[in-house]
Write a structure and sequence with these properties.
Largest sheet: 8 strands, mixed
Shape: globular
CATH topology: Rossmann fold
Number of strands: 10
Number of domains: 1
Number of helices: 9
Radius of gyration: 17 Å
CATH architecture: 3-Layer(aba) Sandwich
Order of helices and strands: EEEEEHEHEHEHHHHEHEH
């Protein structure tokens, strides 16, 4: 399949995730020879279609690397699964990496991991638990999962999440403000929008401080006029959104070299 000037080979992989649920991911491959042991993984915001990750996935493929896209539970390919605001997807992603490695007979796959909003919180927790993650790119990283859910979600969504999440204490332990203290010294690229109303300015500053205590290789940016998620051309100019995707892809590829 071709997207403009970028040619992509696409596939799907089904595996057993959290509680042995049947979970589906999309795999994108470049047309030229590539190293299957070096993989870029993409996680989007809560409830967002995986299509929102396509511009970034295309840029990674253009640079010659395979991509794994994990759609959130309750959306798209995983619409049959209950959403619990990321708790299950930490296990889902680690299981996806196991399945990918088994399929390609790779003893250990190296991963450059991107997450946006809730996807960023999941990415931090996966990196805490899994040495296969060699670098993190985080967009709109949430500070506290409970508070962020109350700011960003509808009352109906909140009720559903509270029914599915094991406990408030468990969700609290996975909040980036707590999980970051367990993160190893890996490269991290972080950016927030100047006008982000989901993560406050003081929360961004504290997260930045926490990350710097853990990693010696941190790059942080506040995007002028940007909001919580901003890689799709709104409210940023299209050219700026394209550049943002290029910067993220280049960083993720760099941690795999």
């Amino acid at each position: 399949m071709s997207f403009g000037a970028v040619r992509v080979f696409r596939s799907r992989m089904t595996f057993q995730g959290y509680r042995d649920d049947s979970v589906v991911v999309n795999l994108w491959f470049p047309p030229r020879p590539f190293d299957t042991a070096r993989l870029v993984v993409l996680l989007g915001p809560f409830g967002a279609s995986e299509v929102t990750l396509y511009p970034l996935a295309l840029e990674v493929v253009r640079q010659g690397y395979p991509v794994l896209i994990l759609p959130h539970r309750g959306v798209g390919l995983n619409a049959h699964l209950f959403a619990d605001f990321g708790f299950s997807e930490i296990t889902d992603l680690r299981s996806a990496l196991d399945a990918y490695g088994k399929y390609f007979r790779i003893p250990k796959v190296n991963v450059g991991l991107f997450g946006g909003s809730l996807g960023a919180a999941i990415a931090v927790n996966v990196a805490v638990q899994d040495s296969r993650v060699k670098g993190l790119a985080l967009e709109g990283l949430l500070y506290d999962l409970q508070e962020a859910s109350e700011r960003a979600l509808s009352s109906k969504q909140l009720v559903t999440i509270r029914d599915q999440t094991p406990s408030h204490e468990m969700l609290d332990s996975l909040s980036p403000r707590n999980a970051i203290s367990r993160l190893g010294d890996i490269p991290v690229l972080m950016f927030w929008g100047e006008k982000d109303v989901v993560v406050t300015s003081s929360e961004r500053q504290e997260l930045a401080s926490l990350i710097r205590r853990q990693s010696r290789r941190v790059e942080m940016h506040e995007v002028p006029n940007g909001v919580h998620i901003m890689r799709f051309g709104f409210p940023l100019p299209r050219e700026r959104a394209i550049q943002l995707n290029q910067d993220i892809a280049t960083f993720l590829v760099s941690v795999l070299k």
